[in-house]
Amino acid sequence: MMPELPEVEALAGYLRERAVGRRVDRVEVAAISALKTYDPVPSAVAGRTVVDAGRHGKFLDVIFDGGLHLVVHLARAGWLHYREAFPSTAPLRPGKGPIALRVRLDDGSGFDLTEAGTQKKLAAYLVTDPAQVPGVAKLGPDALRADLATFAERLRSRRGQVKGVLTDQSVLAGVGNAYSDEILHAAKLSPFAITDRLTDDQLATLHAATRTVLGDAVGRSMGQRAAELKGEKRSGLKVHARAGLPCPVCGDTVREVSFADSSLQYCPTCQTGGKPLADRRLSRLVR
Ligand SMILES: [Zn+2]
């Protein structure tokens, strides 16, 4: 499952706890394609101290003294692994392994940015201003921090199915496929509801659901070890990735709609007046 706002927030929190105050020994890039910038060079980070860690939507931001930022988009299969120690001091060799980038700190600890699978989408940027990262520059307001007026204005600014609009990072930043399923379930809204037809009440409910679902997930994630975060995410979900299982709210069976490279899950009783949504992939097969 792709890391979304709560997981990235927790990773930033974890780095603030573990890495802030430590000086960087060196940065090793094993997957050349993962590093999207070439100036400043990775060696420019050596000798600098980690001063903070933060988040822009689903982007993680590791901040070094002198105003240098390592901004990372973990993509679908990326993760950050904090190491108390590394097995070897030998530099990583560029190759096919899951490690894209390694940051070694002065106490022997550090972290690896890894990506499983063959589709390499993890993107790291070394910049002096996070706004230099194209994906960060176009982010809408943060989904967890937007007040109701901003939230409603953003949602109505884009006409479309609410599931798609809620996950559009330029509308609101931080929500992806998993938490949008959870938010729509909590708000009792169909994923296919059209945004500009939502009433003020529905938008207020959706705003409250967004805050509750993301806030609860951040709360559950904080204090977890980075390695345990993914399991924690799965255990907190009510409909996402639970097709065929009972809805914990009403007991109806959670259903699924599949797309070319993704799927959504929802509860018919809670969200669509008991009616199953058309699964285009299935109806195409039937035809
Ligand atoms: Zn239900």
TrEMBL record:
The keyword Plastid does not apply. InterPro entries: FPG_cat (IPR012319), FPG_N (IPR035937), H2TH_FPG (IPR015886), Ribosomal_uS13-like_H2TH (IPR010979), Znf_DNA_glyclase/AP_lyase (IPR000214), Znf_FPG/IleRS (IPR010663). It catalyses: Hydrolysis of DNA containing ring-opened 7-methylguanine residues, releasing 2,6-diamino-4-hydroxy-5-(N-methyl)formamidopyrimidine. One of its GO terms (molecular function) is 8-oxo-7,8-dihydroguanine DNA N-glycosylase activity. The keyword DNA damage applies. Residues 3-95 form the Formamidopyrimidine-DNA glycosylase catalytic domain. SUPFAM superfamilies: Glucocorticoid receptor-like (DNA-binding domain), N-terminal domain of MutM-like DNA repair proteins, S13-like H2TH domain. CDD domains: BaFpgNei_N_1 (cd08973). SMART domains: Fapy_DNA_glyco, H2TH. Its cofactor is Zn(2+). Keywords: DNA damage, DNA repair, DNA-binding, Glycosidase, Hydrolase, Lyase, Metal-binding, Multifunctional enzyme, Zinc, Zinc-finger. Pfam families: Fapy_DNA_glyco, H2TH, zf-FPG_IleRS. GO terms for biological process: base-excision repair. Residues 238-272 form the FPG-type domain. Belongs to the FPG family. This is Formamidopyrimidine-DNA glycosylase. It comes from Micromonospora inositola.
